[in-house]
Amino acid sequence: MGAVKTKRMPRAVREQQMLDAAVRIFGQRGYMAASMDEIAEVAGVSKPLVYLYLNSKEDLFTACVRREAAALSEAVRSGVRPGLGADRQLWDGLQAFFTHTAQHPDAWSVLHLQARTHGERFAAEVAAMREEIVAFVTQLIVVAAREALPHPRLRSCGGTPTDADLPEREVAGLAEALVGAAESLAAWANSTEGVSARQAAATLMNFAWAGLGNLMEGRPWSPPEAD
Description:
Tetracycline Repressor, domain 2; 227 residues; disordered N terminus; single chain; 9 helices
């Protein structure tokens, strides 16, 4: 009898297998220390095949960053159910974010640490993802402002009334601060034993929602006057 031929794996499946291995090695070793030999070994393929599919270490890393950035953005968006109150939407979004980063610590290391520190090309990919998430959070804050103050009375920096009840610059700053805090807290939670995604989300929710509530109820904190 002749030898039994094994079924050839589709290119798309094989490529995802390589990306899985690459994310694991990049996340654990770092971009500079990661080797194509080790990535190929973990993926169960030859190094020439990795180069054939993904051209270079730089292109492989870029593909990893793009895939993981898209997965994180989708996780946050799909975790929020439209029609619920602003507080519940924000809570669901935070839970989705921290759950995803906890379940994929190597991917979060690639996005949060490696991509930002190894070249403008990689940093730009992460910046695009971050802008998308900031825009999404901005809309949640706008919804929260509408619910808290149904009659808009504050104006944007240019003097034109907005749908939100906070100045545009204030909304933008709050969204940036919230996303930045979530990023730092995810890195801390992933490196601290015993901190669950739910606990991390609750920590940030308590911190953020109390402040947003005071601001929207007309009780913002005011800095002391200069001496």
